[in-house]
Specification:
The structure is a single chain. By secondary structure, this protein is α+β, with helices and mostly antiparallel strands. Helices cover 62% and strands 16% of the residues. The longest helix is centred in the middle third of the chain and has 68 residues, at 142-209. It starts with a helix and ends in a 10-residue tail after the last helix.
C-alpha cells in the first residue's frame, strides 16, 4: 500500500496545478480562430483544390532549359573518305513556355563544334525560335480553357464549402456546449434532491428509533439515496465524456479544467423559438440564407466544363511544329558568333504530327469517365437539394413538436409536484406507504430531468439547421 501514497500525492498535485478555463459560446468562436485540427483539415481540403488548379497553371510558366554534351572517340575510320568525327561538343540554352491558347514557344541559342581529318573545330552557332501549335484537340486553347474552368469552379465551390463546414463545426461545438449546460442543470437538480433524500433517511431513522417506523421504511429511503447517488455519478461520467470530446476538438484546453460561465437556458430556448418563428415565415426555401445554392451553381459549371474535357479524350491530336534558325559557321566559337550578324545563314523547318486512336480502348475509357462525371454531379446535386429541402421543411415541425413536449412536460411536473405535496400529507397521516411516496418523488425527478433534455434538443435542432442555412438572420446565429 505504500506505493499508492506517492501516486495519490502526485495526482493531487497535478490536479491542483491544472489551469481552469471557463467556457461559453464566445470562447468557442475564439477557438475557431486558433485553427483547431478540424478547421485545419477543412482548410487543407480547400487548399488541395487550389493545388490542383495551380499544378495545371504551372504548365504555362516560363522555363529555362539547357543542354550540353561532349563526345570523344579513338576508333579508326573505314577509309580516308569516311573520317571519324571527334571530339564533338554541343551546348544550348533557352527559354520556353506553353500558353493557354494551344501554342508553345521556345527561344534558344546553341553552339556545336566538331573536328575530324578535314575540319578542325568547325563551329556552328545561332539562335532559334520554335513554335508548336495544336490544330484540333486544343485549337486556340479551347480544351485548356475548359480544364481551367473546371478547376476554377471546383475551387470556388470548395471555398464556399470551406466556409459552410467551418460554420457547421462551430454549431457542433455549440451543441456540445449546450449539452454540458443541460448536464449541469441535471446535476444541480439531482444534487438538491439527494440532499432531501438524505434528510428523509435521517428522519426515518429517528422514527425507527422511536418505534414509529420499521426497518423496511429506512431501507427504502436509503435505497433512494443510493439510486440518486448512482444517477449523479452517471451524470458526472457523462459530463467527463463531454469534456473529453471538447478537449479533443480544442487541443489548447486539453490539460485544463473546464468550467461553465454563467448561462441562461430558459432565455436561450426562448431565442430558439423566436428564430423558429422567423424560419416558419418563409413560404419557400430561403436560398438567400445558405451558400449551398452557390455551391450547386459552381458544381454545375464544373460538370459542364469537365464534360467537354472528357468528350475530347478520344479525339484526334494534330500539332503543327515550326522552327526558324539564324546561324553562323566558322572555325572557332567567336568567329561563328560574329557570322550570325555579319553573314548569317537562315533556315526554316515546318512539320506536322498526327495521332489517331484506332483500337477503341480510349473510347471505352472515355465512356466510363463520362459516366463517372455524370453520377458524381447528380449525386452532389441531389445531396444538396435534399439537404436544403429536408432541413427547411422538417426543422419547424421538429421544434414545434419539441416545444409541445416541453409544454406537456412542464404541466406534468406541475401536476407531479402537486401530487407529491398531497402524497407527503397522506404519508404523514399514515394513509399511504413509503413506497408510494418515493415513487411520486422519483417521477417528479425524472420529469424534471426529461424537461431539461428536451430543452437541449430544441437548441440542438436549430443549431443543426443553422449548420446548413448559415446566413439565417436570427439572434441565435451569431
Amino acid at each position: 500500500m505504500k506505493w499508492i501514497i506517492p501516486f495519490a500525492s502526485l495526482a493531487l498535485t497535478v490536479g491542483a496545478q491544472a489551469k481552469v478555463t471557463a467556457i461559453d459560446e464566445a470562447f468557442l468562436k475564439e477557438a475557431l480562430a486558433e485553427n483547431v485540427p478540424t478547421v485545419q483539415n477543412i482548410q487543407a481540403n480547400f487548399l488541395s483544390l487550389k493545388l490542383q488548379e495551380n499544378s495545371v497553371l504551372d504548365k504555362f510558366s516560363y522555363q529555362l532549359t539547357g543542354e550540353a554534351s561532349y563526345l570523344k572517340t579513338s576508333e579508326k575510320p573505314f577509309s580516308t573518305f569516311s573520317p571519324v568525327t571527334s571530339p564533338v561538343k554541343s551546348a544550348s540554352l533557352g527559354v520556353q513556355r506553353a500558353t493557354q491558347y494551344g501554342v508553345a514557344v521556345k527561344v534558344s541559342s546553341f553552339a556545336e563544334q566538331f573536328s575530324n581529318n578535314y575540319v578542325h573545330k568547325g563551329t556552328t552557332s545561332g539562335v532559334s525560335f520554335q513554335v508548336e501549335m495544336d490544330l484540333f484537340k486544343d485549337f486556340l486553347g479551347g480544351l485548356t480553357k475548359e480544364q481551367l474552368n473546371a478547376l476554377k469552379t471546383a475551387r470556388k465551390a470548395g471555398s464556399l464549402e470551406q466556409d459552410i463546414q467551418t460554420k457547421a463545426f462551430y454549431q457542433e461545438l455549440r451543441k456540445l456546449y449546450w449539452k454540458l449546460v443541460a448536464n449541469n442543470e441535471q446535476l444541480n437538480l439531482s444534487k438538491e434532491l439527494l440532499k432531501s433524500s438524505k434528510l428523509q433517511v435521517v428522519e426515518a431513522k429517528k422514527r425507527l428509533k422511536n418505534n414509529v417506523a420499521d426497518s423496511g421504511e429506512v431501507a427504502r429511503y436509503e435505497s433512494q439515496v443510493a439510486a440518486r447517488k448512482a444517477n449523479i455519478i452517471a451524470l458526472q461520467y457523462q459530463k467527463e465524456a463531454l469534456v473529453q470530446s471538447l478537449k479533443e476538438l480544442i487541443p489548447s484546453v486539453a490539460q485544463d479544467e473546464i468550467q461553465l460561465k454563467p448561462y441562461n437556458l430558459e432565455q436561450t430556448v426562448a431565442t430558439v423559438l423566436a428564430c423558429t418563428s422567423k424560419i416558419a415565415s418563409y413560404n419557400a426555401i430561403p436560398v438567400e440564407n445558405t451558400k449551398y445554392d452557390e455551391v450547386l451553381q459552381n458544381v454545375k459549371l464544373q460538370y459542364e466544363s469537365q464534360k467537354k474535357v472528357t468528350d475530347s479524350y478520344n479525339s484526334i491530336d494534330v500539332k503543327l511544329n515550326s522552327e526558324i534558325k539564324r546561324v553562323g559557321k566558322d572555325f572557332s566559337l567567336s568567329n561563328s558568333v560574329d557570322q550570325i550578324s555579319d553573314d548569317p545563314g537562315n533556315s526554316v523547318a515546318v512539320g506536322l504530327s498526327i495521332n489517331i486512336p484506332i483500337d477503341g480502348k480510349k473510347t471505352t475509357t472515355e465512356e466510363v469517365q463520362r459516366l463517372v462525371d455524370k453520377k458524381r454531379f447528380i449525386a452532389k446535386q441531389d445531396e444538396i437539394n435534399a439537404k436544403l429541402e429536408a432541413y427547411h421543411t422538417q426543422v419547424v415541425k421538429n421544434i414545434t413538436y419539441l416545444q409541445e413536449i416541453v409544454k406537456e412536460q412542464q404541466i406534468n411536473s406541475i401536476k407531479l409536484a402537486h401530487s407529491l405535496k398531497v402524497a407527503e400529507k397522506k404519508y404523514n397521516q399514515a394513509r399511504i406507504s413509503v413506497r408510494e411516496l418515493i415513487t411520486d418523488q422519483d417521477s417528479l425527478l425524472q420529469s424534471n430531468l426529461s424537461e431539461i433534455d428536451t430543452k437541449y434538443n430544441v437548441i440542438a435542432t436549430l443549431l443543426d439547421y443553422l449548420a446548413v442555412y448559415t446566413e439565417t438572420p436570427c439572434a441565435l446565429n451569431n
